[in-house]
From TrEMBL:
Keywords: Hydrolase, Protease. Signal peptide: none annotated. It comes from Novosphingobium ovatum. Involved in the modulation of the specificity of the ClpAP-mediated ATP-dependent protein degradation. The gene is clpS. GO terms for biological process: proteolysis. This is ATP-dependent Clp protease adapter protein ClpS. One of its GO terms (molecular function) is peptidase activity. The keyword Phosphoprotein does not apply. Residues 17-96 form the Adaptor protein ClpS core domain. The keyword Nucleotide-binding does not apply. Belongs to the ClpS family. Binds to the N-terminal domain of the chaperone ClpA.
C-alpha cells in the first residue's frame, strides 16, 4: 500500500461517484413582476435580455421552467441567491432544485 494509508480504508473510499447534476427550477406565481424575474435570470444565471424574457414567459405560461443545470453545490447556491433576492424585495418568487 502506498501513501501511508490502510488498504481497506483506501479501498472503501476509492469509489468516486459521478457528480450528479441538478436542474434549478423557477416557479410561477401571480404577484412577482415580470421585470423582476427577468432581472433575476440575468443576474444569477448570466442570461441576456432575450433569453431571460423567453424563460420568464415560459414559466409564466407553463407554471415552471428550467433556469440551468449545475452540480449540486452550485445549484443550491443559485437557489439561495434567488430566494434571498426575492425575499429582500418582498416578492413571493420561488425557486427550487430537482435532480437532472
Ligand atoms: N406571473 C407573474 C405575473 O403575471 C410573472 C412571473 C413569471 C412570476 C415567472 C414568476 O417565475 C415567475 N406578474
Amino acid at each position: 500500500h502506498g501513501g501511508g494509508q490502510v488498504g481497506l480504508a483506501t479501498r472503501a473510499k476509492a469509489k468516486p461517484k459521478k457528480p450528479s447534476q441538478f436542474k434549478v427550477l423557477m416557479l410561477n406565481d401571480d404577484y412577482t413582476p415580470m421585470e423582476f424575474v427577468v432581472m433575476v435570470l440575468k443576474r444569477f444565471f448570466n442570461m441576456d435580455l432575450e433569453q431571460a424574457t423567453q424563460v420568464m414567459l415560459h414559466v409564466h405560461q407553463r407554471g415552471v421552467g428550467v433556469c440551468g443545470i449545475f452540480p449540486y453545490d452550485i445549484a443550491e447556491t443559485k437557489v439561495n441567491q434567488v430566494m434571498d433576492c426575492a425575499r429582500a424585495n418582498h416578492h413571493p418568487l420561488q425557486c427550487t432544485l430537482e435532480k437532472a
